[in-house]
Amino acid sequence: MDIYQEHILDHAKYPRNAGVLERPTHRGKAQNPLCGDEAEIFLDVKNGALADIKYEVQGCILSKAALSIVSEHVKGKKIAAITKLGAGDVFKLLGFTPTPSRTKCALFGFEAVRSLLEKKKVR
Amino acid sequence: MRHNTKNTRSDFPILKMRQSAGGRSTPFIYFDNAATTQKPRQIVEKLTEHYATSHANVHRGVYRVAEEATRRFEEAREKVARFIGARASREIIFTRNATEAINLVASVMAPRIKKSDRILTLLSEHHSNFVPWMRLAEKQGAHFDVIGLTPERRLDFADFEKKLTPRTKIVAVAHISNVSGYVYPVEKIIRAAHKAGAWVLVDGAQSAGHMSVNVAKMRCDFFALSGHKMLAPSGIGALYGREELLNELEPFLSGGEMIREVTTESASWNELPWKFEAGTPNIEGAILLGEAIDYLQKVGMKNIAAHEDELLRHALAAMKKLNCVDLLGMESAKDRVGVISFALRGVHPHDVASILDEHYGIAVRAGTHCAQPFMRHLGVPATTRASFYFYNTKPEVDAFIRALGEIYEKFSV
Hints:
The complex is a heterodimer. By secondary structure, chain A is α+β, with helices and mostly antiparallel strands. Chain A has a single domain, classed as Alpha-Beta Complex (Sufe protein. Chain: A). Helices cover 44% and strands 22% of the residues of chain A. Chain A is built from five helices and three strands. In chain A, strands 1-2-3 form a three-stranded antiparallel β-sheet, covered by helices on one side. In chain A, helix 1 packs across helix 2 and helix 2 (61-74) runs parallel beside helix 5 (100-118). Chain A is globular. Chain A starts with 5 loop residues before the first helix and ends in a 5-residue tail after the last helix. By secondary structure, chain B is an alpha/beta fold. Chain B folds into two domains: 5-30 and 300-411, Alpha-Beta Complex (Aspartate Aminotransferase, domain 1); 44-298, 3-Layer(aba) Sandwich (Aspartate Aminotransferase, domain 2). Chain B is 39% helix and 17% strand. Chain B has helices spanning 5-9, 41-53, 64-83, 98-109, 131-140, 157-163, 186-195, 215-218, 243-248, 283-299, 301-322, 349-360, 372-378, 394-411; strands spanning 18-21, 24-27, 29-30, 92-95, 118-122, 143-147, 168-174, 199-203, 222-226, 237-241, 259-262, 267-269, 325-326, 339-344, 362-363, 365-367, 383-387. In chain B, strands 4-10-9-8-7-5-6 form a seven-stranded mixed β-sheet, sandwiched between helices. Classes of the chains: A alpha+beta, B alpha/beta. Chains A and B meet through helix 1 of A and helix 12 of B.
């Protein structure tokens, strides 16, 4: 399975929801120690839903694209629905299941978002 | 006589393999030799022959097959000793790999490290020759010092001399960096360290299968190697230790084999090298390491080094010409083996490696190479690394260079 498909390259080149939030309710860093990739996630939760999501990511095409695709999917959704999402849902959004060596690239941003939402707000 | 890859490539079944990449059938180009090398058919045949004729536990049985197994196992130890220039085979301890060899030394040295003693290593080390010393220093309340690198990513010898003190108990350095391929001036380091009263451990994981090594001439106190990086299977490695030091040190693991006598009150230790080899060893691994050494010596260590040097120079020149490759300060081919870490402008190292595999059938490594302090020094989260061995060819390097150019054109952002 070629992971370098048009929509993946497009998301990596033009990441949706990239940037920072000035006053996030949740904020955290994620790391992929395998390849040194890093992401900082900013979330704004209002009334039990994810009102806004931004992130800064330094990483490979797959980690950028996956975070972009996930951010589009979770924005506006109820927190309870987002925390229920799993790896399989992310692969469905991507349109393929990455090889074991690239699984972490596809998931590390999403896992950071989910674990932030499972934690308390920062403000 | 120059080494002819035609004579050796046919010994490696995996190099004949074809795979599908980029929608076509391509040869398998293996440039991840610094991680592990491929195995010649002679190794596989030797294993089959060993199991079919001579397998038994060593040093125990009185029957002939057990005696033959023991003879082969100890003959392998002698081959390792001769291969790296040890004075006697009792200076060779079989381990799982270089990592275990280094951990062995760090562990048995602990009682000799006092508070305010110093341990010195190098910024570019593989974590396996960095973290064991860091932990040892922490455990004993000693200082952990790190030698810096020059802007050319070579060992900063002035910094080494500054950090080497009479309290420095051990200096641990790689013979060759697994990231840059640079050969460090270990003889010079050892001379200075011995003058200061420190022992020196040389991590030979990247050197043992790539150049002639002579530990007696080098005068190192310890030398670690991994079999799988020199044609042998994984799970077998060796530690060389100077006999006088090994005799002074207490055992590593306890159990069978390393024992002379046990009573309900006390135990005494076997003689070298078995004092450091508790439990049934990796018998067939050791025998195959001996077989790998025979193979390497048939090709000739000088020929191997010369062939790698030719590939290295060819690759470096072509990469410089591409104008999209950043060699991260490691431009020189001098005192270097066939290891090249680099960045392709605008393409993440992980993607470079993935695309090389999926579209071109070329296997390289991407990541931190277990050398995170070195990555931080280079100012990159990771690099892509291509590493050659004697069975690689110039046409393979050319295919790799063409691929890099195309990947840059198509994927650079």
